[in-house]
Design a protein that fits this description.
- The chain has 2 domains: about 1-75 and about 125-195, no CATH class; about 75-120, no CATH class.
- About 50% of the residues lie in helices and about 20% in strands.
- It is built from 7 helices and 5 strands.
- It has helices at about 1-60, 65-75, 90-95, 100-105, 115-120, 165-170, 175-185; strands at about 75-85, 110-115, 145-150, 155-165, 195.
- The longest helix has about 60 residues, at about 1-60.
- It is elongated, with a radius of gyration of 27 Å.
């Protein structure tokens, strides 16, 4: 009888030890996995922002179409002003402007076209991956949208937004801890996930991790 009681007590002690360890280690493991996934998703969102800003420089507005944005990255070109020479002191003393120097061929200012993908990402960059959320064992796309916001003074401001919910980023991680994270974000009136830009306000194309 005494031996049976000792076995039961040892079993209870082991169980309690496990429960205490799990209660401490569980959120630590979750935070580590969350950080690894967040870091990768943030890098992808930065790439999306880089592509959108370049697209706007060329087209005057953002795009909410993945096909359009990816095709722009793969085949688009950016204008680059080539500058050779500059006004010298003697030119300035003679009353020359830059326009005068250009006309006389003393300095050169012209525009050349450079590849978007080579300039922003590198020739080996796979533009097709731009729309996909980099999460293991998951095929999911970021939401992408674009609009024009008209301010109270009548100024039209191009906006874009790319985002992904925590339920996708943290898929297959501790479900209760993901629920808790989402609830905390909503309580603080924040988006429960990662996003860059906004379709409702001009936020300088900032990411919500910044």
């Amino acid at each position: 009888m005494k031996t049976a009681i000792q076995i039961v007590l040892i079993a209870i002690a082991i169980l309690l030890g496990y429960l205490i360890y799990n209660s401490v280690q569980r959120p630590i493991d979750f935070e580590q996995a969350k950080k690894e996934r967040y870091d990768k998703v943030v890098e992808r969102l930065k790439e999306i922002r880089k592509a959108e800003l370049a697209y706007k420089d060329v087209n005057g507005q953002f795009t909410g179409s993945w096909d359009t944005l990816i095709n722009f990255v793969k085949t688009g070109e950016l204008p680059l002003v080539r500058k050779i020479g500059m006004l010298t002191d003697s030119m300035i003393e003679a009353g020359w402007t830059e326009e005068t120097a250009i006309k006389k061929g003393k300095i050169i200012r012209d525009t050349v076209r450079i590849s978007v993908i080579d300039t922003l990402f590198g020739a080996d960059y796979d533009a097709e991956q731009l729309k996909y959320v980099p999460v293991p064992d998951t095929v999911a796309q970021f939401f992408l949208g674009a609009t024009i916001l008209t301010t109270g003074s009548g100024i039209r401001v191009p906006l874009f937004e790319a985002k992904v919910h925590n339920n996708t980023v943290l898929r297959k991680l501790d479900r209760q801890l993901v629920i808790n994270l989402n609830d905390k974000a909503r309580t603080n009136d924040k988006y429960p996930g990662l996003k860059v830009g906004s379709l409702t306000e001009a936020n300088n194309n900032a990411g919500n991790w910044e």
